[in-house]
Amino acid sequence: MAPRASWIEAHPTGIYLPTADAWIDPAVPVDRAIITHGHADHARGGHRAVLATRETLAIMDCRYGPQPGQAIGYGETIRLGDVDLRLVPAGHVLGSAQAVLERGGERVVVSGDYKRRPDPTCAPFEPVSCDVFVTEATFALPVFRHPPIGGEIDRLLAVREAQPERAVLIGAYALGKAQRVIAELRRHGYDAPIFIHGAMQRLCDLYRELGVDLGELRPVADLKPAELAGRIVLAPPSALNDRWSRRLPDPVTAMASGWMRVRQRARQRGVEMPLVISDHADWDELTGTISEIAPGEVWVTHGREDALVHWCRQRQIPARELALVGREDEDD
Prior knowledge:
It is built from 7 helices and 19 strands. By secondary structure, the chain is an alpha/beta fold. The protein folds into 2 domains: 9-143 and 280-321, CATH 3.60.15.10; 149-275, Rossmann fold (3-Layer(aba) Sandwich), CATH 3.40.50. The mean pLDDT is 94. It comes from Sphingosinicella soli. This is Putative mRNA 3-end processing factor.
């Protein structure tokens, strides 16, 4: 039997389609890049041509300057050499997409990063049946089972209510996580201004330009330190313990990340209130997605590749690790 998807090559720097002369999420600049979403470990600058959703191109423009790109709408099909490319939602962040590739009657889905939980800031994941499914494995261990986000937001608001003399400082990744936390706070009835670190301003503004309502956001510098008591403040994780955070009045330090399931990580970062909020699929969602899609073969990228490959093989699903380089944990 011929190997599945022999027309696709997996290199350490990305997935290559020789007959289309295109790379998917390459780690180095290339002539033609298909980009699944705007996080920096998938979307790098310097490509001669970029194919992505309108939102992902806008995010790349915001981060790297104008990109030589072609916007592809969800569900639209374009021809690259002898390969048909279609983008469908991945549910990860705004504009995130799975690359659905078809050639010679064979279909491969490169999912990029994805999650299965509802998210008011992006389109939900769309399962697509395929011969080969390329999946991430960021949280591919049974210990990672993310709780409902509503309960985490309720805990956050309860702490703020119980300790009004303290600011609530939330560490959140600047693209996707921060906007999701803000949108969920709004859904839970928090309509007061939310204060943000300057590093988050451009991306929050871009989300609003692209139609995502985040309510009133204000720079932390708008208020004197004492006036931030009882306020909710969002900042990049790197700002939680630096000089910038010292201007806040005795803050409750929180961190929104799937890694907050690991208590040692929370302690190492000095996090008083771990919030298990992730933009990646957890163990049950990874395995459930594979079961739902029922691919003939699974290729596994960054994370705990070995555990997910083992799970597949136990169920007689052929699986292998791709060992791509340059992939990072946006949640960290």
